[in-house]
Fold each of these.
Amino acid sequence: MEDLREITTLQATTILISTIIGVGVLPLPLFAVRAGETGAPLVTLFGIGIAAIGLFIITKLGIRHPSKTIITYSEEILGKWLGKVCSIFVIIFFTILTALAAREFGTVVTTSVLIETPLDVTVIVMLVLAAISARNNINVFAYIHNFYVPIILAPVLIVVAVSLKNANILYLRPLIGSDFKEMFFGALTVAALFQGSFIMTLIIPAMKQPKKAMKASIWAILISGGLYLLLVIATVAVFGTEEIKQLFWPTLELARTTSLPGNILQRLDIVFLSVWVTAVFTTIFASYYLTIYSIKQFFRLQDHKMLSYFILPFVYILAMLPEDIFQMYEIIRYVGRIGLSITILYPLFLLILDVLKSKRRKHSESKQV
Amino acid sequence: MSQNKYRAKRIFLLICLLPLLTGCWDSREIEQRATVLAIGIDKAGPGAEEREAEVSHEKGDISIPEENMIEITVQIAIPGRIPLGPQVGAGEKKPVLVVHVVGHTIEDAIYNLQQEIADEIFLGHLRLIVLSEEVAKEGVKRFNDYLRRNPEIRRTASMVVSKEKASKYMEASPELERVPSLYLAEMVDSLVDLGKFPESFIGKFWSIFSSEGQDGYLPYFHIKGKKTIQINGLAYFHGDKMVGKTNPQEIGSFMAGIGAEKGGYPIFTDIPGNKKEIALVQAVKRKTRIKASLKNGKPHVLVKVRYEAKVSEKESPNVKIKKEEDIRALERGFSNAGQRSLSDLIAKTQKAKSDIFGFGEYFRAQFPEYWKQNVETEEGWGNIYENLSYDVEVDTYIRHSGMKDK
């Protein structure tokens, strides 16, 4: 499969965008406001910055090893055994991430729209959908993401634009709301929402021109980050910080408060939710794919298809572990922060080692000459 | 042979898909829903304790809330009787069912209501919540939790305060629309469109209520005669308690104070030089700038309002509006009247410590240091607002005087 190099730069960008935009959009303003009060947009901006650094590191690594993923080149850089150990962490982390995303999805759906549907059903349906789709090869994977991106972006922008008529700019000031330490931790939580961008490591080996991967990364972080920032600004301007603290999913409330002019649609939340389901699907799909593809490479298997159903029960059980919504968000916060060390610090470490190694190699080569 | 096998596989797959056809888990037919269109909340009269069914608790249970019991009156749409379009000679049957129940909280009362109604209560189409003045004066905080928590309730529903018992509004039958509660809800919406009232849906009220530097306001309704309902002013709050109401004219001033763009209220304006002659000048558009400043550490606001207005009526045939000077004079008259009215309204709300204009938000946003040191809580701002100094400047531009010369 490594030989198929069909993914264009545009496709790589759209994969990243639709992977990044996921369950996180709903509680994002709450996370940001909790950390930064009226400085929420600033917190988000910091978060995007941190996430961007992480994504650029992983892209840089990918460009240096254009036909390998992090699972394979880590063995080259760290040595076989240390590389394997680190890869295990990556795989476990993304399994958990998939499970938590599915669980968060299920929780939102069962509390806000489908009140009588059991949580298990929503979670299973989403996971099965991801598992079936994940049996495809990476090109189909790219097509699916490419197809959904406009559907994900447009309605969010519409909701933001229409809701601005109720906005109060005063709610956004002062720009720096609370002390630096809290804002920093908030930024970490926000950055954790971007962890799906780790999928880049898997796309680069399938790209037509891996050299252009950086361009894709920059565009992806600009678009998805811009959208997140817009959402935070809009929700804070409409609700004010104090009201947001009372809501689990401010973004959903934003859609509920917004009606299209002229009574075409009196509430937009249903439209918004159905779009959001798509966004969640692409995210879970990507992290699921990343998980099984990594397992495949870890064991040097030929095919990832059978793994797709094999890990389904594990993901499902993990998803059902949190007892309630408060515990779930607690876990999401911790897992997110720990995850940053896997998605940012670990690649950074690899990159530094890699650069040092190649320098030494050049050094010795030039000595030989 | 292999063809057959393939077909068998396909049929098996189709059978597997069959259960999915049943559709949505939560599906409930519209006739099986008791769609609540409006809720009126009153204080329950004496003896309510006895009238309450023992649904959520037994009588005399000590852990029940201490607040006064409430009586809620709901309008439930009767399936099939809500006309979808204009109907000629519609029947006499009422399209809604009105039910009264008592309870300690809203949810408690709704449970009691469910006990009396066969279909599941559905609040997704709730358009209007009427609070009687009595209830509003005791505080609305106790209702917020339920209304926010319940996913069915729209944030765009309207909430109004009523002079009479809220139950009367549920039983009133205005003739312009078949469904009374829809008429009331439409009324709130169209008042906003006409520039008669600022946006005031329930989500907005909550945002303002939560914010530290502003107090909430709601439309204040009054039943006139038997069938018509009038918007009689604006109920203003301090914290969660209603502390007073304005007259309808002052709504216009209030809208000038918060900078609502659309104007809708007329003012009788003296025509200078002719002491007894007046003309009716109506605000069309306004633009408001509020400047908050600290003078020697004391907060001060400057409210600058720019009106665009039109002459809509001049009663007396003796005076003429002909020259430019006449218009200038009218503009001056309108400005003075507007300035006076807005100043009076600010003074009135200051007495009640109710900053419905949200001046506090300007200080919170622009002087965070001052805010942290002196205010911190909303109670603090109320006390400062009471003694806030302010200046009001009004400019008026009259562009139109209608079809009539002179």
Amino acid sequence: MSTATGLTAPTHPAPAVDGLDELLRSMADDEFVIGFSDSEWTGIAPQLEEDIAMSSLAQDELGHAQALFQMLATVTGTGDADSLAYDREPADYRHARLLDHGRGDWAMTIARRYLYETADSVRLAALMSASWSPLAELVGKLVREERYHLMHVDLWLDRLATTNGEPRDRLISALETLGPDCGTVFTPLPGEPALLEARILRRPMAELERDWRAGVAPTLERLGLPALPATRDPTRGRTDHGEPFTWLHGEFTAVRRSDPGATW
Amino acid sequence: MTDPLALDPVLAPGDRSTDAVPSTLAPTRAHDEAYDAWFERFEAHLAAGGTVESTDSMPDEYRTAVLRFVEMHANSELMGVLPERDWIMRAPTLRRKLALTAKIQDEVGHAQLLYRVAEDLGKPREAMFDDLLAGKTKFHNVFHYPTRSWADVGMIAWLVDAAAIVAQQALRNSSYAPYARTMRKICWEESVHIMHGRDVVVTMVTGSPAQRAAIQEALDRWWGPLMQMHGPRSPREKDKDLRWRIKAKTSEELRQEFLTIYVPRIRELGLVIPDPELRFDEDAGEWRYTEPDWDELRTVVTNHGPMSEERLEFRRLARSETAWVRETILAAPQAA
């Protein structure tokens, strides 16, 4: 079976399909939601040069979301990227709770981007050798762009952490706010055993989280930043979305809801 | 966004923008014969199609005129971000969201390029932001109005950018070479915006009855500001910016050009232009139209438009909330 997106269908055992659905939805929702937060800076970022950078990051993340939603539509055989992205109730989104804190100030944006980008890179690395080649190929493309995102956020983390006073205080405060949700990118997926068995996901999420924590700890220590706490209520890391997401959902569905079924 | 000085004729002297670089030497130099001779040679150079680089010597009068023109263009790009920005979060599909984000990113990029051109003429970027937010310098009339629906996103990208590009294309041969080079890049990007805007408009015009009605309603609201956008007629011979070839066309020439290109394109979509007097006079070879409301233009560009104060206040707030970040960029890094 070939599809409109040029992807080739997988030849893995049927039980893994449910898990694949969950995996793609969680990744697509992560990129979709962080892309929205980043695009909230378009036009009002701290300086013009950073404004342009942030718009590029937002477009990258939303482009990734689009590709992942397209793949999800192919896998499930229902809907298209837009209907999958937009036409759900808030409770049906599966992004990590880490991304549920609203845009916040610049320090919050950098803290969120740092925690998310480093976690995402560990997750993507574990999917580069997925047995389903369309996914492995897509992940390869995403990784190429995410490298630049990491370079951008590393610079900012360093600069805020090493500038005493307001910048460092704000960064620490943001890390403390996000801390209890920091590991939610690695929330175990319902279909995870099937994904592991089908060798789509090469290692369990819990193991990836340990790798990620081991990777970021030296950076935080070098910069004298607080160590990351254990994740609060880790099994519900992708389901309990709060007020900021309710607002965001209201915004991004406003035009679609104004004329249901219309083509935009 | 375009030809900001076209607005000056409608402003009372007290409302006009002041010279950013005070030409304190001018009164003395006015009696200096050597200076007069040099000034004449400079004007002859411009009249012969010559260009000026930022590192060339230039009379203060010319430097000030270019700075004022470019600064207001930069301000308009920066303030022009805000009406569309309101819809980034509400864009109804992934493709529209990506296109709108990219379009607004371009506008921020244009502001950055233009502020850099202006900075080279001697006014720091922060001083230009200070003057803009204090209401001492102006931004274009169309960005003082609210955006009420997604149809406005299409209307701005299509027709506001189209009216702008008519003026901007005429700036690609500006005598101030850094500005001319910048305009070549900007025009290329603006032409993509027009395609994006037209696509939004065509999709809605051919969509549901409510979508089609929203586009017509948006056109009804934007037509007045669009007709005012290039400013009232002003005599070519009295315009220093034309004489020095900072710009190439008068307000009326730009408006006629806009109407010639876009009236047929608007009508081709079955939309009705809300001006019963609008027609092409074959004998005179030009468009006739209801006289635009110049009082409205004067009111709006002096920051008394429907959204003027709200937009300026929004920008003041964003700037003050992020001041600490700019200080961080400038601060010497310290050990953790």
Amino acid sequence: MTILALDGVHKSHGRAAGAVQVLRDVSLDIRQGEVCAIVGSSGSGKSTLLSLMGLLDRPDSGRLRFEGEEVGTASADRLAALRNRRIGFVFQAFHLLPRLTALENVALPFLYRGVPPRLGRDRAASMLERVGLGDRLHHRPEEMSGGQRQRVAVARAVVGDPALLLADEPTGNLDSATARQIIDLFFALNADLGVTVALVTHDPAIAARCGRRLVMRDGRLDSAAPGAVA
Amino acid sequence: MRRAGHVKPARPLDDGESGGRRWRALAADALRNLGAMRQRSLLALLGIAIGTAAVVALISIGENAREHSMRQFLAMGADILTVQKDFSLSGRPAVLTRADVDRLRALPGVEEVAPLAMLGVEIRQGRTRLPSAVAGVTPEFFALVQAKAAQGRTLTEGDRAATVVVLGAGLARRLAEDGQPPVPGSLLRMGGYNHTVVGVLAGSTPNPVLPLDVDSTAFVPLSGARRVSANSDITNLVVRKMPGATDQAVRQSLSDHFSGGPHPRPVMVQSARQLIIAMTDQARVHTLLLAAIGGVSLIVGGVGVMNVMLMGVVERRREIGLRMALGARPIDVCAMFLAEALALSLSGGVAGVLLGLAAAAVYAWNAGWAFAPSVPSLPLGLGMSSGVGLFFGLYPAVQASRLEPVAALRGE
């Protein structure tokens, strides 16, 4: 089953004359349950592609469908609701709120879902335990190592039980050993929860582990690259 | 694995959205955010607090001042009117006579009339010389203005030809020789005659409708006023109206008495009620003016709130972007910043109300008034501060909610 479908998507940054074409005629399907790496050189449009996939941005033209729903023209509120319930994000810079504890950070998505705070914290606690941080619930980000912070971020991304987990260079700020643990975590979550994973990476070793690689070149999806391996 | 099984069943709750709970959680979130930028919040809060304090203090002070002057009137009776010669008109000023007193007494609605001759002379007691107001009065004057003797007695019919004097409490204090104020039996020299003090009045608050301050006046019998000063014509008539009579009607019949007949005499009739109304109007204008000044300081505080919030929006772009990525709708972001602005200004408002009441209490204590907290100033102060917070918080909040998630996440 296809979770996400892009069809002839164009995207440019900037306005009018100075606009830079970032994505040109990109079409792809993300299927449920796969782990997919997006690779390519800097400025090839990987991150822009990921933000379109995460419904953080809209395509200039072309169709974008999420779980069969046409979302290219959906309202901001609808996109927010889909991001809240169906999509999880992990960023290179973790993006944890420094004044909140690990537990509060992980429970944050529930704030926008109207889940009772107690219940949200309970689910956050069990998810932190799941990523191996059961003893760090009440630590603030500054009291944790990079790897621990990224695990908190991963817990936050999947605590709401999303269909799609998007990661933008999740290991970019980590040493290789920690990076491997985080990638292991992604695969484990993929296996346990069935969450579909799409991650942008520079690391060929990580890309090699993924079942599918999408290579971006100059704003286009490189069709010469091996498409579906899985 | 086992954990996965644990998380999955909670899924149905995803749709358990409830409005009240959501807003309460958002409010708690706002307070936490404010706490994080403690110092800057405190400064903006200070601005709001000062503005609110100004509004509350000024309104309370205005209200206490008004109550104080009202109480002054009521102490002396609001049923008093005075008739005095109108010097503003051309021609010979009117002459008030004892015959007028008797005729006015017969007018409907008039309870009592007392003639009054205002003189100014120098009083001497031993080495003390004091220029003072002296009033020639008849015995009924004291009852009419509710002046009572603290020592000795007031004047009686038997004093008609005697060289006696009754002193107001304040005047007696000022005449003190070697720390000893004059007592009944003391002698005072006025206009070349020794006058025996027969009484000292109890202290009283001045009644603005009377041409004299009872406290600082020496009273001599009207028939003996000629001894004190060459010009001892009756200058005023003090009138007490009957409790049921309307102010308007009595004023009218007094004026009619003097303007009627073959020789109309121009006089001015003033009533306590008239003065009270004028004073109340004046006090209202003052209060409004003072409140407007407070309002201006409140607006300055509001600009401070806007400043803090705008800086917050700029500094917290990544956070806004992250919250949007996690599912915050534009209205959630807007509500978060509005709630923060509201919490900020409302806590400033509470502090300001307390501060303002304290300031008003100190002012009232200093002025010797009875302090009563102005009830409408409390909701007004809180309402104004939260209104200012919402108004000045709206722009930053809307700015925040309009950020594009991608740009905000990059911190642009």
Amino acid sequence: MSFIVDYYNYWIVVFLMMAGFYIVISANNLVKKIVGLNIFQTSVFMMYISIGKVSGGSAPIVAEGITTYSNPLPHVLILTAIVVGVATTAVGLALVVRIKRAYGTVEENEFEDKEDLI
Amino acid sequence: MAEFIDLVLLGMLAITALRVIFLKDLFAVVMLFGIYSFLSALIFVNLDAVDVAFTEASVGAGISTVLMLGTLALTGRKEKTSNHPALLPLLVVGVTGAALIYGSLDMPPFGDPNNPAHQHVAPRYIEDSPQEIGLPNMVTSVLASYRAFDTLGETAVVFAAAIGVLSLLGLPKRDRQAIESGLKSHLVLRVVAKLIIPLTILFALYVQFHGDYGPGGGFQAGVIAAAAIILYALVLGLPMATHVVQPALLKTLAALGVLIYAGTGVANFFLGGNFLDYNMLASDPVAGQHIGIILIELGVGITVFAAMLSIFYAFAGQAERTNIQ
């Protein structure tokens, strides 16, 4: 049982990462690809936060009577990464909107016939 | 008990991700992604990362869902069936996943206090930051003081991303005579929104200025304040919202936030300190740290607010233009 608890978080992280990866390479629709990229990204967040956890620890805010705190450093890295992540996702979505306007479609397999339009 | 909650929530997260793969209705995919974000936020709370959970809940479930729905309004909600063979991606993913699982067995066990990650700088942050910086929230101390240069970079990336979106889509013009939009005819929505919006803005200010003591800070406050205006725009229409918070003002604010941040750093040069070393800002180093942190958190909050809102305006302006056509 302890073997499972020790590695469960990492396995779920790998599963989520692969689910995101699969969506990115197999999905036909560009919006769905971006959702896949986001899932991939969240799996990395989950890994950092899992590494920062200390068993029996508390949130890293000083309070009386608490001696063990979880590691604050991964929290800082991921906090900023989430906001940067949504900003870069927005750039990706803006590109999708422009692709729709230029090609009339956001389905990957339909671009080929429309290349000479541009 | 915490381990058990962890097992269940992570399992639910995996199921949600699995469902996203097979759904063809993109509206449902985006909604599931909102659920996915909330579940992640719960897991972050369970893993003691309250600041991260706060950010994930406001960003993931608030802003990114709205942006994705805005894109769907322009691109259509159905994914067409693909004629790709599904075998090759599955093979690639399977092999990569197996390699990563094999690698994960060399990872240090989850939650062990003797893990390498807890040996390097973390003890110093935990033991010395309450005296050195004088703030109870260590995440804010690390974010805004020890690693302030890093955070300056992140703020600049948010600013750059907003510029990218604006150059791709453009901001809507401020137009009083624009056609009626929004959901003004829904009485319940209108009344509830009017009740919620002022409280949300008040809460954003609380998060901004209480971030030194509890979970919160500039990143979360900026997103929450932007969410309040986004709600206003959704219910009362984009023309009304651009009248309240003008697009031109947002451009100035986005740059102003980065300027406040970098300016605080440069001010230290003139007082004889290093870049973003706030000890010189007051006669007492701890008071100087406090002033510096409040200033740069303010810069972060302003930039994030302006960037998120102008990104939303850009998407909503596109959707509005399509509706008129």
